[in-house]
Structure prediction request, 188 residues.
Amino acid sequence: MCNTLSQRAPKRKSSQVKQGMSLRGIAQISARAAAISKGGVNQKQLVQDLNAEEEDDEIKEPKLTIWGAIITLRFSTALVAFCSKFIVNSISDITVSGTVSTTFVGLILLLIIRNAAEHVIAVIVAYKDKISLAINVTIGSSIQIALLVLPFVIILGWIIGQNYITLYFDTFLITILFITVLLVNYLI
Prediction:
Protein backbone atom coordinates (compact mmCIF):
# COMPACT_ATOMS: atom_id res chain seq x y z
CA MET A 1 0.00 0.00 0.00
CA CYS A 2 2.80 2.45 0.90
CA ASN A 3 4.78 1.79 -2.29
CA THR A 4 2.08 3.21 -4.57
CA LEU A 5 2.86 6.45 -6.34
CA SER A 6 0.81 9.54 -5.72
CA GLN A 7 -2.05 10.48 -8.04
CA ARG A 8 -0.01 12.98 -10.04
CA ALA A 9 2.62 10.43 -11.09
CA PRO A 10 2.07 9.02 -14.57
CA LYS A 11 1.31 5.34 -14.89
CA ARG A 12 4.08 3.94 -17.07
CA LYS A 13 4.14 0.29 -16.14
CA SER A 14 2.13 -1.18 -19.03
CA SER A 15 3.97 0.82 -21.68
CA GLN A 16 7.32 -0.13 -20.16
CA VAL A 17 6.38 -3.82 -20.24
CA LYS A 18 5.34 -3.58 -23.91
CA GLN A 19 8.49 -1.66 -24.76
CA GLY A 20 10.64 -4.17 -22.84
CA MET A 21 9.02 -7.10 -24.65
CA SER A 22 9.55 -5.44 -28.04
CA LEU A 23 13.17 -4.60 -27.21
CA ARG A 24 13.78 -8.17 -26.08
CA GLY A 25 12.33 -9.46 -29.33
CA ILE A 26 14.47 -7.07 -31.37
CA ALA A 27 17.56 -8.07 -29.37
CA GLN A 28 16.88 -11.76 -29.91
CA ILE A 29 16.34 -11.27 -33.66
CA SER A 30 19.49 -9.16 -33.91
CA ALA A 31 21.52 -11.67 -31.92
CA ARG A 32 20.29 -14.54 -34.10
CA ALA A 33 21.13 -12.57 -37.24
CA ALA A 34 24.59 -11.80 -35.88
CA ALA A 35 25.11 -15.44 -34.92
CA ILE A 36 24.05 -16.62 -38.39
CA SER A 37 26.45 -14.16 -40.00
CA LYS A 38 29.23 -15.41 -37.67
CA GLY A 39 29.26 -12.15 -35.68
CA GLY A 40 30.70 -11.93 -32.18
CA VAL A 41 27.48 -10.95 -30.42
CA ASN A 42 26.40 -13.04 -27.45
CA GLN A 43 22.63 -13.59 -27.61
CA LYS A 44 22.30 -14.61 -23.95
CA GLN A 45 24.10 -11.48 -22.73
CA LEU A 46 21.74 -9.17 -24.66
CA VAL A 47 18.66 -10.88 -23.27
CA GLN A 48 20.09 -10.91 -19.72
CA ASP A 49 20.75 -7.15 -19.89
CA LEU A 50 17.10 -6.55 -20.79
CA ASN A 51 15.90 -8.92 -18.07
CA ALA A 52 18.01 -7.11 -15.46
CA GLU A 53 16.01 -3.91 -16.04
CA GLU A 54 12.70 -5.70 -15.43
CA GLU A 55 13.93 -7.50 -12.30
CA ASP A 56 14.24 -4.21 -10.43
CA ASP A 57 10.52 -4.30 -9.62
CA GLU A 58 10.67 -7.77 -8.10
CA ILE A 59 11.09 -8.41 -4.38
CA LYS A 60 14.76 -8.76 -3.56
CA GLU A 61 16.19 -11.20 -1.07
CA PRO A 62 17.67 -9.65 2.08
CA LYS A 63 21.44 -9.30 2.09
CA LEU A 64 21.79 -9.69 5.87
CA THR A 65 21.48 -12.97 7.67
CA ILE A 66 19.45 -13.17 10.87
CA TRP A 67 22.61 -13.01 12.98
CA GLY A 68 23.94 -10.08 11.00
CA ALA A 69 20.66 -8.25 11.58
CA ILE A 70 20.74 -9.01 15.33
CA ILE A 71 24.34 -7.81 15.64
CA THR A 72 23.55 -4.65 13.66
CA LEU A 73 20.48 -3.97 15.82
CA ARG A 74 22.46 -4.40 19.05
CA PHE A 75 25.29 -2.19 17.79
CA SER A 76 22.90 0.56 16.69
CA THR A 77 21.03 0.33 20.03
CA ALA A 78 24.29 0.73 21.94
CA LEU A 79 25.26 3.67 19.73
CA VAL A 80 21.89 5.37 20.28
CA ALA A 81 22.18 4.81 24.06
CA PHE A 82 25.65 6.36 24.04
CA CYS A 83 24.47 9.36 22.01
CA SER A 84 21.42 9.82 24.25
CA LYS A 85 23.56 9.77 27.39
CA PHE A 86 25.92 12.29 25.79
CA ILE A 87 23.03 14.61 24.87
CA VAL A 88 21.44 14.43 28.32
CA ASN A 89 24.77 15.09 30.04
CA SER A 90 25.42 18.11 27.82
CA ILE A 91 22.10 19.81 28.67
CA SER A 92 23.59 21.44 31.77
CA ASP A 93 26.48 22.83 29.70
CA ILE A 94 24.04 24.41 27.24
CA THR A 95 21.73 25.92 29.87
CA VAL A 96 24.47 27.24 32.17
CA SER A 97 24.72 30.51 30.22
CA GLY A 98 21.06 31.29 30.87
CA THR A 99 20.11 32.06 27.26
CA VAL A 100 18.39 28.69 26.79
CA SER A 101 16.22 27.28 29.57
CA THR A 102 16.26 23.66 30.67
CA THR A 103 12.53 23.42 29.98
CA PHE A 104 13.01 24.53 26.37
CA VAL A 105 15.77 22.00 25.82
CA GLY A 106 13.79 19.19 27.44
CA LEU A 107 10.44 19.91 25.79
CA ILE A 108 11.49 21.18 22.36
CA LEU A 109 15.05 20.32 21.36
CA LEU A 110 15.14 16.76 22.69
CA LEU A 111 11.84 15.93 20.98
CA ILE A 112 13.09 17.32 17.67
CA ILE A 113 16.27 15.28 17.98
CA ARG A 114 14.29 12.17 18.94
CA ASN A 115 12.10 12.45 15.87
CA ALA A 116 14.91 13.46 13.50
CA ALA A 117 15.07 10.03 11.85
CA GLU A 118 11.31 9.99 11.24
CA HIS A 119 11.45 13.52 9.81
CA VAL A 120 14.28 12.58 7.46
CA ILE A 121 12.49 9.42 6.30
CA ALA A 122 9.27 11.36 5.68
CA VAL A 123 11.10 13.98 3.61
CA ILE A 124 13.03 11.36 1.60
CA VAL A 125 9.96 9.29 0.70
CA ALA A 126 7.98 12.43 -0.11
CA TYR A 127 10.79 13.46 -2.45
CA LYS A 128 10.56 10.01 -4.09
CA ASP A 129 6.83 10.70 -4.71
CA LYS A 130 5.54 8.23 -2.12
CA ILE A 131 3.35 10.70 -0.31
CA SER A 132 1.16 8.08 1.35
CA LEU A 133 4.20 6.53 3.04
CA ALA A 134 5.38 9.97 4.22
CA ILE A 135 1.97 10.69 5.71
CA ASN A 136 1.83 7.24 7.34
CA VAL A 137 5.26 7.75 8.95
CA THR A 138 4.30 11.15 10.30
CA ILE A 139 0.88 10.16 11.57
CA GLY A 140 2.21 6.88 12.98
CA SER A 141 4.73 8.80 15.06
CA SER A 142 2.02 11.07 16.44
CA ILE A 143 -0.26 8.14 17.24
CA GLN A 144 2.60 6.35 18.98
CA ILE A 145 3.21 9.33 21.25
CA ALA A 146 -0.50 9.92 21.92
CA LEU A 147 -1.52 6.34 22.61
CA LEU A 148 1.61 4.77 24.09
CA VAL A 149 4.19 7.21 25.42
CA LEU A 150 1.93 9.78 27.08
CA PRO A 151 -0.24 7.26 28.99
CA PHE A 152 2.90 5.31 29.98
CA VAL A 153 4.56 8.43 31.38
CA ILE A 154 1.41 9.37 33.31
CA ILE A 155 1.03 5.88 34.81
CA LEU A 156 4.75 5.78 35.63
CA GLY A 157 4.35 9.16 37.35
CA TRP A 158 1.48 7.75 39.44
CA ILE A 159 3.60 4.74 40.42
CA ILE A 160 6.58 6.81 41.59
CA GLY A 161 4.37 9.46 43.22
CA GLN A 162 5.09 12.33 40.84
CA ASN A 163 1.78 13.68 39.50
CA TYR A 164 3.15 16.49 37.33
CA ILE A 165 1.70 15.24 34.03
CA THR A 166 -2.04 14.63 33.81
CA LEU A 167 -4.58 14.15 31.07
CA TYR A 168 -6.25 17.43 32.01
CA PHE A 169 -6.08 19.70 28.95
CA ASP A 170 -7.01 23.37 29.06
CA THR A 171 -9.09 25.11 26.39
CA PHE A 172 -6.06 26.10 24.30
CA LEU A 173 -4.73 22.52 24.10
CA ILE A 174 -8.17 21.13 23.25
CA THR A 175 -8.50 23.72 20.45
CA ILE A 176 -5.10 22.81 19.03
CA LEU A 177 -5.96 19.11 19.22
CA PHE A 178 -9.28 19.70 17.43
CA ILE A 179 -7.65 21.73 14.65
CA THR A 180 -4.93 19.08 14.27
CA VAL A 181 -7.49 16.30 13.90
CA LEU A 182 -9.37 18.32 11.28
CA LEU A 183 -6.17 19.07 9.39
CA VAL A 184 -5.03 15.44 9.37
CA ASN A 185 -8.50 14.27 8.34
CA TYR A 186 -8.50 16.76 5.47
CA LEU A 187 -4.97 15.69 4.48
CA ILE A 188 -5.76 11.99 4.44
Observations:
- The chain has three domains: 18-57, 62-100, 115-187.
- The radius of gyration is 27 Å.
- The chain is about 75% helix and 0% strand.
